[in-house]
Amino acid sequence: MISEQLKSIIRDGEGLTVEFKECRTQINRDVYETVCAFLNRNGGHIVLGVDDNGNITGIDKDALPQIKRDLVTALNNPQIINPP
Predict the structure, then answer these.
(1) What is the mean pLDDT of residues 65-84?
(2) Who contacts 18 (Cβ-Cβ below 8 Å, separation ≥6)?
(3) E strands, 2-52, where?
(4) Which element (helix H / strand E) includes 21?
(5) Confidence (pTM)
(6) How far apart are the C-alpha atoms of 15 and 34, rounded to whole Å?
């Protein structure tokens, strides 16, 4: 179930502090680029499972545990995100 706050973020679309990423079965490299960009500004929201047009595509249920692991591992890896 999608919260009202998340629905509002999606409805308002992408901007300086909101980025949509499809990532249906895996984390795409550009997610990390967006994390770095947000870290260099004032933060923001990265919404996985939503395409650039704001359409909810979802995340493959079977892929979700690996996506979570990959994201946490990458965010703690100084070769990808520095400082971690």
Answers:
(1) 87
(2) 9, 12, 44, 45, 47
(3) 18-21, 45-48
(4) strand 18-21
(5) 0.86
(6) 12
pLDDT at 9: 95
Residue found under tokens 């490299």: 29
Domain boundaries, the chain: 10-75
Task: Kindly report each contact of residues 67-73 with a partner whose C-beta sits within 8 Å and lies 24 or more positions away, as own/partner.
Answer: 67/23, 67/25, 67/26, 67/27, 70/26, 70/27, 71/27, 71/31
Give the number of residues written for the chain. 84
Closest CA to 40 of 48, 32, 28: 32
By the 8 A CB rule, do 19 and 47 touch? yes
Q: How is residue 61 written in tokens?
A: 């249920």
Angle at 70 between CA 67 and CA 72, to 5 degrees: 105
Helices and strands per DSSP (H, E), number in the chain:
3, 2
β-sheet bridge partners, residue 53: none
Tens digits of residue pLDDT in 18-33: 999 999 999 998 998 8
